[in-house]
From TrEMBL, chain A:
Residues 1-141 form the Isopropylmalate dehydrogenase-like domain. It is an enzyme of class 1 (oxidoreductase). It comes from Scophthalmus maximus (Turbot). It comes from the Eukaryota. This is Isocitrate dehydrogenase [NAD] subunit alpha, mitochondrial. PANTHER family: DECARBOXYLATING DEHYDROGENASES-ISOCITRATE, ISOPROPYLMALATE, TARTRATE (PTHR11835), ISOCITRATE DEHYDROGENASE [NAD] SUBUNIT ALPHA, MITOCHONDRIAL (PTHR11835:SF34). Catalytic subunit of the enzyme which catalyzes the decarboxylation of isocitrate (ICT) into alpha-ketoglutarate. The heterodimer composed of the alpha (IDH3A) and beta (IDH3B) subunits and the heterodimer composed of the alpha (IDH3A) and gamma (IDH3G) subunits, have considerable basal activity but the full activity of the heterotetramer (containing two subunits of IDH3A, one of IDH3B and one of IDH3G) requires the assembly and cooperative function of both heterodimers. PROSITE patterns: IDH_IMDH (PS00470). Keywords: Oxidoreductase, Tricarboxylic acid cycle. The gene is LOC118301990. Its EC number is 1.1.1.41. Belongs to the isocitrate and isopropylmalate dehydrogenases family. Heterooligomer of subunits alpha (IDH3A), beta (IDH3B), and gamma (IDH3G) in the apparent ratio of 2:1:1. The heterodimer containing one IDH3A and one IDH3B subunit and the heterodimer containing one IDH3A and one IDH3G subunit assemble into a heterotetramer (which contains two subunits of IDH3A, one of IDH3B and one of IDH3G) and further into the heterooctamer. GO terms for biological process: isocitrate metabolic process; tricarboxylic acid cycle.
Length: 149, 417
């Protein structure tokens, strides 16, 4: 925000507006809380930093534990039904849901398998630079989960 | 340099200057040399009838179209208001003065201090009056203390709205000497500077429930859109993107978008498109090269400016300008006070020096502007003397000394180093 200066850790000799800092060194941030519009903007900005909406999970939490978890990318009608989509965003949103429900073991297992598959780069959907199908990507994750058991 | 006795200067319309009657060819030539800085190369070396040239010039002004450069005061020197501000502002502006003195720039600064600790508006009103008088200002950021009651408005905001500096212009360019994740960025951001979410209109009708008014007017939206398209055309840019959130703020941002579309129809040579602000920030951090010129309301401008500054290397590098119909104020683009690094000789002087060059261009002192700008960029890109914010170990004064050395080495008239 104009005119404001953040207090920065002593080893960082800069003081800057939030969005500039996020772009230059996002690792300095941990948990951020903010009103609606800033959240809209900042969440998309951060999604861009980690690879886009195709890999970004999200959840909407209400009172009494009511919650809806969702991916925030578009409906992609051009690739619908062609076994081409990247399921990561929705899958990680489901992991968030499992954690919300207290099923941490299951959540962690699925997340680890998913991250390992992506890290390995052997079976990736088109948007991540590979040429595997959605079902192949999913099967690979399932295989890793089995190996983890 | 004094006017010859044979010439009788008379003030002409509005803020223009002297209608001079030539008495002799010799006098005419010296007059031409004196006033050619005003009009750039427009008059050339031949003497024309000043009356008609002056009035037709008014419509051909560059940059802001209607914005007429302020008159040089007596003796060919300009007077510019200088507001040191808080944090790193004072030290950076001292460096600007140092470089100007060294390069014999014909600018005198009228310093006006604005105390951010007091609640009265006397200081800022003095500053505004000074800027009205001089037409041009160079400023550091004035801190807006959060401990003040809400009735105390942001001084920077007051300045912008009182002087109706409706266009905030920021040019973000990748610098070859600075390491960044993304390269080849060249984006011009035009941000509406007077209304939107910065209207300072809030109320709490019910305790614990605050309503903030975001003001979007047809007038100001048309005005800023027109500025953006004129600037794009003048700079030879191909595409203008309007940034908005009209899917949610259907009336406010919807009006802004509609105004942009209307103006766009008058510029068929320039491509116009629009993008929602959250998608814009995502695109900026993943593929910033796709953007050319961007126009947007106030708050989104703040966000996008800061993101773009971060993309090209940080707040220490980018200069910013605020233009109105009659006045122009130059500062760093991201308007930081830099409190935590003040007084430690580690701040990056680049942004402020480049802002002063933008000011010199505005005053049509193009040679001085180029000389200082080239020296700053040479220090940045060739000598690679960098301050800490861009990964180097140089101090502010070392960078400034290097800039002055480069200026001197180019053979310009300078004072002693």
């Amino acid at each position: 925000p104009a005119g404001a200066s953040r207090s920065t850790p002593s080893n960082t000799p800069t003081s800057c507006g939030c969005h500039g800092c996020m772009v230059q060194d996002p690792t300095q941030f941990d948990v951020l809380v903010m009103p609606n519009l800033y959240g809209d903007i900042l969440s998309d900005l951060c999604a861009g930093l980690i690879g886009g909406l195709g890999v970004t999970p999200s959840g909407n939490i209400g009172a009494n534990g009511v919650a809806i978890f969702e991916s925030v990318h578009g409906t992609a009608p051009d690739i619908a039904g062609l076994d081409m989509a990247n399921p990561t965003a929705l899958l990680l949103s489901a992991v968030m849901m499992l954690r919300h429900m207290g099923l941490h073991d299951h959540g962690n297992k699925i997340q680890t398998a998913c991250f390992d598959t992506i890290r390995d780069k052997k079976v990736l959907t088109k948007d991540l630079g590979g040429n595997s199908k959605c079902s192949e990507f999913t099967a690979e994750i399932c295989r890793r989960i089995q190996d983890l058991d | 340099m004094e006017l010859s006795r044979e010439l009788s200067p008379a003030p002409c319309a509005r803020s223009d200057r002297f209608l001079i009657k030539m008495a002799s060819h010799g006098a005419a030539l010296s007059v031409s040399k004196m006033i050619s800085p005003f009009w750039g190369g427009r008059l050339g070396n031949t003497m024309k009838v000043f009356g008609t040239t002056l009035t037709s010039h008014r419509n051909k002004s560059l940059h802001t179209g209607e914005n007429i450069p302020p008159p040089a005061k007596y003796g060919g020197r300009h007077t510019v208001t200088l507001i040191p501000g808080d944090g790193i502002g004072p030290e950076l502006l001292n460096h600007v003065r140092e470089v100007f003195r060294f390069s014999c720039v014909p600018v005198d600064f009228e310093v006006v201090h604005v105390n951010s600790d007091v609640q009265t508006e006397e200081d800022i009103n003095n500053a505004i009056t000074a800027i009205r008088r001089n037409g041009v200002a160079l400023k550091g950021n004035i801190e807006t203390k959060h401990t003040m009651p809400p009735s105390v408005k942001s001084r920077n905001n007051l300045l912008r709205t009182s002087l109706d500096l409706y266009a905030n212009v920021m040019h973000c360019q990748s610098l070859p000497g600075v390491q960044t994740r993304h390269k080849n960025i060249d984006i011009m951001i035009i941000r509406e500077n007077t209304e939107g979410e910065y209207s300072s209109l809030e109320h709490e009708s019910v305790s614990g429930v605050v309503e903030s008014l975001k003001i979007i007017t047809r007038n100001n939206s048309l005005r800023i859109a027109d500025y953006a398209f004129r600037l794009a055309r003048e700079k030879g840019r191909r595409r203008v993107t309007a940034v908005h959130k009209a899917n949610i703020m259907k009336l406010g941002d919807g009006l802004f978008l509609q105004c942009c579309r209307e103006v766009a129809s008058g510029y068929p040579d320039i491509t116009f498109d629009s993008m929602i602000v959250d998608n814009t920030t995502m695109q900026l951090v993943s593929k910033p090269q796709q953007f050319d010129v961007m126009v947007m309301p106030n708050l989104y401008g703040n966000v996008v400016s800061n993101v773009c500054a971060g993309l090209v290397g940080g707040p220490g590098l980018v200069p910013g300008a605020n233009y109105g119909r009659d006045y122009a104020v130059f500062e760093t683009a991201t308007r930081n006070t830099g409190k935590s690094i003040a007084g430690r000789n580690i701040a990056n002087p680049t942004a402020m020096l480049l802002a002063s060059c933008m000011m010199l261009d505005h005053l049509q002192l193009y040679d001085h502007a180029s000389s200082i700008r080239n020296a700053v960029l040479t220090t940045m890109n060739e000598t690679r003397l960098h301050t800490a914010d861009i990964g180097g170990q140089g101090t502010t004064s070392e960078v400034v000394q290097s800039v002055m050395r480069v200026i001197q080495s180019k053979g310009q008239l300078t004072s002693e180093l």
